[in-house]
Each structure stands twice: as C-alpha cells, then as structure tokens.
Hints:
Layout: H1 2-17, H2 36-39, E1 51-60, E2 68-78, E3 85-96, E4 101-112, E5 114-115, E6 122-136, E7 167-184, E8 187-196, E9 215-225, E10 230-241, E11 244-260, E12 263-274, E13 278-287, E14 290-299, H3 304-307, E15 310-321
Antiparallel strand pairs: 1-2, 1-15, 2-3, 3-4, 4-6, 5-6, 6-7, 7-8, 8-9, 9-10, 10-11, 11-12, 12-13, 13-14, 14-15
Amino acid sequence: MIIRHLKWILNIACCLFFVLNASAQDIHWSQFNDNPIFQNPGNAGHFNGDIRFVGNYRDQWRSVSVPFSTISLSVDANNYNNKKIGYGLMVFHDVAGDGQYRTIEFQGNASYLIKISADSMHTIRPGINLGLNHRQVNFDQFQFDNQFDGISYNPALSSNEVYTADRRTNLSFGLGAVYQYYKNDRFHFTGGIGAYNLNRPNQGFYNDVIPRDIRFNLFGKGIYKLNYDMDLVPGINVSIQGVYREIIIGSSVKYTLVNRLGEYRALYGGLFYRNRDAAYLSAGMDYQAWFIGVSYDINFSKLVPASQLRGGVEVAVRYILNRFKPKKITHRICPDYI
C-alpha cells in the first residue's frame, strides 16, 4: 500500500517539476495556499463557511540587509442569498531596502461558481480582480558619493540628484479561474490560472513610462487519503512576471487528531522546494474554525555567503465564521374542536 502511494507521489512530482525550469524571485509567499485571494480571484468565497478572514506576515533577509517586511490582510465571503457568488477584499503592504521602498495595494475580488457536472463533482469559478496600487520611496535615506566631504558622509550636502516624483498611484486589473474536482473531503483537486496587471500601469518615478509587467500565476493543490488518520496534501505554484520566474513544489502531511461531535483538530508538517533559491519547512494546525501555519526558508542560492542559509520566516492565520441559521418553524392553527 505504501509503495503504491510513493509511486503516485513521484509520478505527480516529476510531471510538475519538469514542466518549467525557472529562477525565483525574492519577494513571494511561501505558504501560497494560505493566501487564497492573492493566489487567484476565483478563490473569493471558495470555502466551506460564510466569512473567511486571513492574515499573512513575512520577514525576509534580516541576516543580509535591511529586512524585507510583507503583510497581507483579507476577508472574503459567499453571498448570503446566492452561494454561487463570492467576493472579497485584500490589503497588501510591503517595505523593502534602505530607501524604504513601500508598496500598498487594495484589491477587490469577485467570483462566480459554474457547475460543470450535475452532482457538483466538477466546478469552475471565474474571477475578476481590481486593485489600487500605491508605491513610494524615501530618497532621503540613500547615500551618494557627492555627500562625502573628504572625511566622512555628510547628509547636509546635496546629492545633486533630481527626481520627478517619489510616489506613484495607479489602478490594476486582473482575471482568473479556478477548477475543482471534488469526490469527498479526503480526495479532491483544485487548480487555477490567473493574470494580473493586464492594463500594464505605469510604475516609473521619472518621466519615462515603465509599464508594470503582467504577472501570470498557475497553481495546483489536492488532498489524498493515506490511511485512517493521515492525508497527503501536495501543491505547486508557478509565478511568471517579466524576466522573473518562480516555481514552488512540495507537500504537507495532515494528521487528524479528532473530527467528531463538533470537535475538529489536525496537525500539518511539510517540505517545499523553491527552484534555484531555497527549501522550506512548514508546520500548521487546525483548531475548530482556526488555522495557523508557520514556515521557515533555508536559502541555498548564490546569496549563501551573506545569508548563511537563512531566508525568511512566514506566518499565516485563518478564521472561518459560520453564521447562525435558526430553524424555520412552521406554525399551524389548531381547529376549534381541539
């Protein structure tokens, strides 16, 4: 039985790994499946429950330079009267480098469920993404050769650099779609593709127009029953934006502690690989409607002499709210003779 499971895992891994060969980006989410709206707008409202709250935090390259700090908060829900409609909001904040290069983005997402089969085993959920992106940099934090007075750095001296602007705000537009094959809670597959920045907004701080590259994202994840208590949870995420490429592939193992009489607890442990950049370990826990996950990157790129194998730590938190639905009681008028 175990040999058959291993063959299944290796076949899937080999097929996914040799599809693309790419180099990674520095800014990314390791726990890509735990940031669903960022992953694909078709994920908006795609969960069991009524309202989903998700928070993500990443701290990277603290051992190399000024740390890169990223935080994301999102909320999405099903339409109360029409469960086929999903919608969500997300705010994304990132600060990087000496110049405190800051990116703040607000996104609105909407999706619609289409049943491919009558039994809902096969579904597809197209989605739309609209974003308001603001970027700014603090040029006063930079140091230039012209500010060297012959003895030391003197911030009072002019850098003689002329900047057109130190901030830029624009709109972005994206589309996506998510497909799901669902047999039961312990055997299903979800995959999707998305394209963002389709309108190519200008992100330059000078007079020259610098269109933002379109970002393409492809993901796949699933769950496969191993035995009575354990499940395999494999996943892959491919991101392409301009000259940058990123592939993450790996799997977690889920161990269910209890799932009966309204009690639910489960543990996760996983190992993932980011092509030509890092490997990372992940751990997590489901506790009733809560989930918390932690991951840590082990860097083995060309930056190893500076990073000393240290990459970034990431935390994901999720809470799903189920609205109280009172029972519908039908009142009957008793006849006079009773």
